[in-house]
Amino acid sequence: MGRAVTPRLLALGLALVLGVAALAALAGATLLGGPAGTGSPLPGSSQLPGGSTPPGASLPPGASLPPGASPTAVPTPSGPPRVRALAEREVFGFLPYWKLGQPDTRLDLDRLTTIAIFGVEAGRDGRLVRQSTDGRVPSGWRAWTSPETGAILHDAHARDIRVVLTVQRFAWSDVQRRRTIALLSDPVRRATLADDIVSEVTGRGADGVNLDFEPVPAPVSDAFVAFVRELRAALDAAKPGLQLTFDTTTGIGGYDLAALTADDAADAVLVMGYDYRVAGATVAGSVDPLASFAYGGLLETLDATLSQAAPDRVILGLPWYGRAWSTDSDQPGAAVVDPRTYGQSVTVEYADAVTQARLYGRQYDVLEASAWTAYRKKDCGTCPETWRQLWYDDVDSVRTKAGLIVEHGLRGLGIWALGQDGRLPDLWTTLRLAFGDLTDAAAPEGQAGVDPATVIERHGGLPVADGTLQLRLSAADGQAGSGVAFVRVSGAPDVDAAGTLLTGVTFPSTAILALGLDDPRLGSGFEAGRESVSVQWRDVAGNWSVPLGVEFWSAAAVSPSPSPLPSAGD
Predict the structure, then answer these.
(1) Parallel, antiparallel, or unpaired: how do β-strands 548-554 and 458-459 relate?
(2) Which whole-number Å values give the CA distances from 348 to 351, 353, 359, 399, in the listed order?
(3) Residue range 61-90, pLDDT digits in tens
(4) Are strands 208-214 and 162-170 parallel, antiparallel or unpaired?
(5) Strand partners, 470
(6) pLDDT tens, 199-252?
(7) Which of 552, 545, 544, 485 is nearest to 517 (CA)?
(8) Integer distance in angstroms from the first to the last C-alpha of the chain?
(9) 36: phi then psi, degrees, rounded to nearest 5
(10) Under a CB-based contact definition with an 8 Å cutoff, are residues 154 and 132 in contact?
């Protein structure tokens, strides 16, 4: 089944928060991502600002405070709460300019509620950057003004889906930090930016704006709150009902979430729940762990977020990408080895991660709630060979983490980024399952046999396999099913109480599967003569089929190899 957040994991998350004080500090100090979570830190990125609470700010006219609240805690004007321009359950997808108009970029208009076009930079002078210093038109501006965005606006509005502009302002390097401070500390520049954003949003017929200011330097934390309030007022004056959201990194200490999500400010905060691990990580693992002993995780971040902001004002962003590192072993938690010698860490989009797991098998870490795979790799022809580990979210991890949204009553889910699923439908199906829009209790059905194209000879009517067995597979989950997600192959037919093969290798669903008969994970040393493997399928909802047997003739006895995986790249 898709993994739910178990009491044991929740207890573990609480223990990580309460029992290991240093963990929170380490999570806040982790190098975090580049453009809205591309998974690559920008040059010069360093530790996040400290988690101190920004000093109080004066209240707007008509505002009131509950007893004991600080001036920034709830700066809410008196009267009825403002109606927020959000869906009851947000599915907020970032569409980066490099994915706009690409053949594999699939927008599920049945599931999305907001599409954020990423992104246009806010200049230090308060103007949106329409032209770079060398005279070129930035890719983000070209995307925002493109016919493709116009078509998305038309199609999305026909389905009552909002389309918003993402305005980005980074402060990872010293130069970027100085420019961000110059912008936010000047009321005139803030007003110019607010006016420019409103002009673009209304002129394009869009539905609002998403602010990706990461991180917010500590000296202008209050000024960022002021800017969000000023932008809220400008949007409301131009057209009531325009959406305003902002993004945070996992180090939320630099953001006054209570003030920023008050009724006179943003509709919601989108917490970018990824890049806990980046290229410089010393241990391989998930980029968005549910919990981890070294890098913090989503449970910890949500606990800190919900101590400041109401759940219905929080959108949890998840990555549709993973990351690969060179490591010293194929075991989870392996140390990362010198990237200069063994190959740099890289981000890997979801569709490409599935392709890798189809070759080498998919494993799953329950603590971090993450899929992963391991394989051997040489970074160059003369480079030493080492293990490579790729960690990514798949249907089980997304379902577990989306379950946090339901459990905590959050406003919804964010996706970085649309197009990284390569038109695979399974993550969208997972969201339907997680949010209760789909149920599926029926197991898929499949057929398996030795691939006829690989049969050179037969013995006793059976296809002969000499070291490698290639299977041809097909499976279906019915018209109302959740879809076939995995296939599991074992050298032994034994199953557990749930009907799952006890030993074996699980792969993302595929039509052709090549097995090395010396792979110890198959759970059998194949003898010369008549042999068989057992095959079963699992759907996205977690239902396993009854295993089928595939017989073949083993040309020679095969002893399991301690290192069966061939070399490959990312």
Answers:
(1) unpaired
(2) 8, 6, 15, 20
(3) 333 333 333 333 334 456 688 899 999 999
(4) parallel
(5) 514
(6) 999 999 999 999 999 999 999 999 999 999 999 999 999 999 999 999 999 989
(7) 552
(8) 29
(9) 45, 40
(10) no
